[in-house]
């Protein structure tokens, strides 16, 4: 099965605001896809369905064939690695090692296996040397990379990033782009940074007014937008 399959997803908030009007999409394993669209288009609402924060009003979401639902939430949250826009919402332990270990420890990983997970995740983001430092001593760009490591330590099926390039200087942007390109994982990134989408994502989706308005190679989608 694809990493992500969304079928006929519609959702209205309790106040009646209809945010999604029948979204269909599939993302294959290993694809890197940008999710673009104006403010209010429904991007956040869609992302909140991918790990079960919101429950579909109509339609369904599957991650690697497993339907998102009340009985599968634990496994879905392991499979869907959400990286928030602000890394400081994700890092709350005294040391980087504890932050990166938190997710897998919560799944029951212990001892040498846990140490190996932490080392591997920090190596994937190019920061093996910061394990024993407090996150707040790192630069913003390093904190964002540690936030990526905290979800990689769960060995997710799909990495979902909210505005990954925001607030990064050019060097940090480039470093993060190289890291994301090097990972052997499916990536979905919500972004307003069109050059970043073009550089990193072979495919882009435009969400507009709660529907998918475009889906194709990033260069073509941006040329038509
Ligand atoms: P985006 O992330 O693309 O900016 P959102 O998913 O945040 O879009 O919003 C989609 C629509 O849903 C907008 O009309 C927004 O005002 C509305 N919306 C978002 N969150 C809520 C909420 N908690 N209650 C009511 N309406 C909401
Ligand atoms: P983003 O920039 O990620 O799209 P927004 O600025 O649209 O986020 O929304 C920020 C927060 O406000 C979100 O938690 C969203 O659910 C909430 N929100 C957005 N629109 C509404 C609304 N009309 N009513 C209530 N909450 C809303």
TrEMBL record:
Topology term for the membrane: Peripheral membrane protein
SUPFAM superfamilies the record matches: P-loop containing nucleoside triphosphate hydrolases
Domain ABC transporter: 4-225
GO cellular component: ATP-binding cassette (ABC) transporter complex
Annotated SMART domains: AAA
InterPro entries with a match to the protein in the record: AAA+_ATPase, ABC_transporter-like_ATP-bd, ABC_transporter-like_CS, ABC_transpr_CbiO/EcfA_su, Co_trans_ATP-bd, ECF_ABC_transporter_ATP-bd, P-loop_NTPase
Membership in a protein family: Belongs to the ABC transporter superfamily.
Function: Probably part of an ABC transporter complex. Responsible for energy coupling to the transport system. Part of an ABC transporter complex. Responsible for energy coupling to the transport system.
Protein name in UniProt: ABC transporter ATP-binding protein
Lineage, top ranks: Bacteria, Bacillati, Actinomycetota, Actinomycetes, Streptosporangiales
